[in-house]
Amino acid sequence: MLESKLKTSRSYKNKDTIINVRDTKIGGSHFAFIAGPCAIENQDQYYTTAKSVISCGANIIRGSVFKPRTNPHSFQGLGRSGLKLIKDLSEDLDVVVETEVMDPRDVKITSKYVDILRVGTRNMQNYDLLKELSKINNPIILKRGMCATIDEWLQSAEYLMFNGNENIILCERGIRTFETELRNTLDLGVITILKSKTHLPIIIDPSHATGKRELVLPMSKASIVSGANGLMIEVHNCPNKALCDGKQSLTLDDFEHLSKKIKPLLDYENKTI
Ligand code: PEP
Ligand code: MN
């Protein structure tokens, strides 16, 4: 297919896509500062973490209730019953919320409870899920498959845009390489490449990209100066008790520190949260 016919391409639409979700904008100079726990474990953990990151400037709260765990014995998430908790938090704290969806049968109900839906790395090429998501109008964060090329990633975004939804956010979260020191290898070069290929916003997840809390701040800084339109960062009120991804989760204090450190870089790049 001609690249100019692809809805994701710059030749189809030259201007940067700006996504409007409630009063929050994502794309162009509008920076998405997404933070929250990997998995929502209970009301106290979710609310405590969310309130703290909001006070540091986060404008979108992350948190999963459907968890794609490698080990079937690991915590699988609260499931559908957690969706109400997400909606309650979004109303109580007046904040935009996002969550992952894995099963096409959960798409409709999740779209009613949550502002932004996320496709995780393991499902970037789950075409039945992508087709179901193309029927809703909520913004969608599409994570890069851990073994996917840029073109495969963009074609998955094309599935999401098939029925006219233009509110797609691409998220780089690290890819599999021969290196084992870090959980994944963060491919920051994609920001510049994608800016030339697509009008869609691109955000970075330095938490899954590295798997290590100490790497989150340096990779966040690098992402901003590389032109990222946002960050998605895992934060937990007590990371050593986390049911998922504790080692890469920032403490509340770490996140406050990060939020201060990135401010001058955002100003330099003319990005506003
Ligand atoms: C997540 O963001 O909760 C997650 C599971 O990440 P990934 O799909 O990138 O592994
Ligand atoms: Mn996680």
Q: Can you give me a brief rundown of this structure?
A:
The protein contains 9 helices and 10 strands. By secondary structure, it is of the alpha/beta class. The radius of gyration is 17 Å and the shape is globular.
Which strands sit side by side, in order, in the main sheet?
3-4-5-6-7-8-9-10
Q: Biggest sheet, in brief?
A: 8 strands, parallel, barrel
Total strand segments:
10
Strand content: 5-15%
SSE order, as H and E?
A: EEEHEHEHEHEHEHEHHEH
Helix content: 25-40%
Give the helix/strand layout.
Elements: E1 19-21, E2 24-26, E3 32-36, H1 43-55, E4 60-61, H2 83-92, E5 96-100, H3 107-113, E6 116-119, H4 127-133, E7 140-143, H5 150-161, E8 168-172, H6 189-197, E9 202-204, H7 206-210, H8 213-225, E10 230-234, H9 252-268
Parallel strand pairs: 3-4, 3-10, 4-5, 5-6, 6-7, 7-8, 8-9, 9-10
Antiparallel strand pairs: 1-2
Bound molecules: phosphoenolpyruvate and manganese (II) ion.
Residues 38, 64, 68, 100, 120-121, 143, 173, 205, 208 line the site of phosphoenolpyruvate.
Question: Could you explain the architecture of this structure?
Answer:
This protein is 34% helix and 14% strand. It has helices spanning 43-55, 83-92, 107-113, 127-133, 150-161, 189-197, 206-210, 213-225, 252-268, and strands spanning 19-21, 24-26, 32-36, 60-61, 96-100, 116-119, 140-143, 168-172, 202-204, 230-234. An eight-stranded parallel beta barrel has the order 3-4-5-6-7-8-9-10, surrounded by six helices. Strand 6 (116-119), helix 4 and strand 7 (140-143) form a beta-alpha-beta unit. The longest helix is centred in the C-terminal third of the chain and has 17 residues, at 252-268. The termini are far apart. Residues 38, 64, 68, 100, 120-121, 143, 173, 205, 208 line the site of phosphoenolpyruvate (PEP).
